[in-house]
Amino acid sequence: MSETTIDKACDLTFMRLALTRARRGLGDTWPNPSVGAVIVRFDDGAGGPLVIGRGVTESGGRPHAEVVALARAGAAARGATLYVTLEPCAHVGRTPPCAEAIVAAGLARVVVACRDPDPRVAGRGIAILRRAGIQVDEGVGREEALWLNAGHALTRTVGRPFVQLKIAVDAAGRIAAGSGGQPVWVTGAAARARGHLLRAQTDAIVIGRGTAEADDPRLTCRLPGLGERSPLRVVLDSGLALAPSSRLVASAEEASLWLFCA
Question: For residue 66, which of 111, 24, 121 has the smallest C-alpha distance?
């Protein structure tokens, strides 16, 4: 299969693989977005496409996914196709621009799920690639990529985070309370596991001091193998009255804890 005969279904297959990589990094790449990248050769003569490099933005936001995938592909990247969930960066930050690394690697084609809304990029990465003679196609897997990059987009365009509300209610849509106002479980093991997965996939979890006092939670991720992916714990505590004996304070060495006061 040549680069010119790749159909849309094939592109979507490999972009979905890149999107899967990106999902794995959610909650672990702040202050950068979690990006997935896959490099594929279509002219290897092995009877079908061959994945030669995969990458996801590393912990803490660098190196970027494209750089990781290029390093794994090595010299075989020349003439190959890159599938990436977000437009390659075009500015110099803590690392050189990914767009220039792609040009230097000699890739023939880049498939981008969505453009980067960051004003420092915003089409400039794609322009660098096209000026170098690289074929760039956009929009494959765009809707899922936009969702995965919602936090990044909101931060860069309107200056606020992407906020998700997690709440446990009964079948009638009510928040349950036991005798004396004490909390009671209204969810099963599967729902609680899903809640812990949300913790692993987010940068921070926020509660008020009232919730901290009533529930005495830890707010850490306790899914097997994901203990290190606990989010930043944030308590809105106007009077700095959170008890030093609380489980949040006791676990502060395990996972970061921030208190916001008046």
Answer: 111
HSE-up of residue 114 (Cα within 13 Å, Cβ side) = 18
Could you give phi then psi for residue 124, rounded to 5 degrees? -70, -35
> Mean pLDDT, consecutive 10-residue segments, the chain of 262 residues?
65 96 93 95 76 94 94 95 95 82 96 92 92 95 94 92 88 74 79 93 95 93 92 96 96 94 88
Catalytic residue among 3, 58, 66, 138: 66
DSSP 179-237: GGG-B---S-HHHHHHHHHHHHTSSEEEEEHHHHHHH-------STT-GGGPPEEEEE-
66 is catalytic: yes
pTM of the complete model beyond 0.85: yes
**Which residues does 121 contact at the CB level (< 8 Å), separation at least 6?**
87, 89, 90, 91, 115
